[in-house]
Design goal:
The protein is mainly α. Among the domains are: 1-35, no CATH class; 42-104, Arc Repressor Mutant, subunit A, CATH 1.10.10. Helix content is 66%, strand content 8%.
Length: 154
């Protein structure tokens, strides 16, 4: 079903969005699965991104930045520790805390992710006109904003 023949000339009936979206969703999932052999979640990816951008952070600081509990952050960082994408070192300032830092393996993962992102951008820019890219970007932003807004209400 995911890779059935699909044309842009689908009749405008009630389920045209679904008929258009399903092949797109399959493409995205297939591409993400090919990339994400490391088994890192989006939330874990974001932790790596924060660490590379701002340097080492404590679990408490990461929790505050992510808007989740410290225990939730600890669960997220466990897999990153297991993969050796981060390290924990006892804080020089407060011996009860640990500073979490990204490792070279974590940086390599982010570099692969950036390469993947650039490849997807090439696909989008090749498939769409400049005007369509602008519209697509606006629609992506609108969907993300609506999703983020919905999560704030939970």
């Amino acid at each position: 079903m995911c890779f059935a023949n699909f044309t842009h000339e689908a009749p405008m009936d009630e389920d045209v969005l679904e008929k258009s979206y399903i092949p797109f969703q399959c493409l995205v999932i297939n591409t993400l699965n090919q990339f994400n052999v490391a088994g890192i979640s989006t939330a874990q990816y974001q932790i790596l991104d924060v660490l590379v951008a701002s340097g080492s952070r404590t679990t408490k600081e990461l929790a505050a930045l992510r808007g989740i509990s410290q225990s939730g952050t600890s669960k997220l960082t466990k897999r990153l520790l297991d993969k050796k994408y981060i390290v924990q070192n006892r804080s020089d300032i407060d011996r009860r805390c640990y500073d979490i830092s990204i490792t070279s393996a974590g940086r390599e993962f982010l570099n692969r992710a950036e390469k993947f992102r650039k490849e997807i951008m090439v696909v989008i820019k090749t498939a769409l006109s400049e005007q369509e890219v602008a519209a697509f970007a606006g629609l992506c932003g609108k969907i993300v904003a609506a999703t983020a807004h919905g999560r704030e209400k939970e």
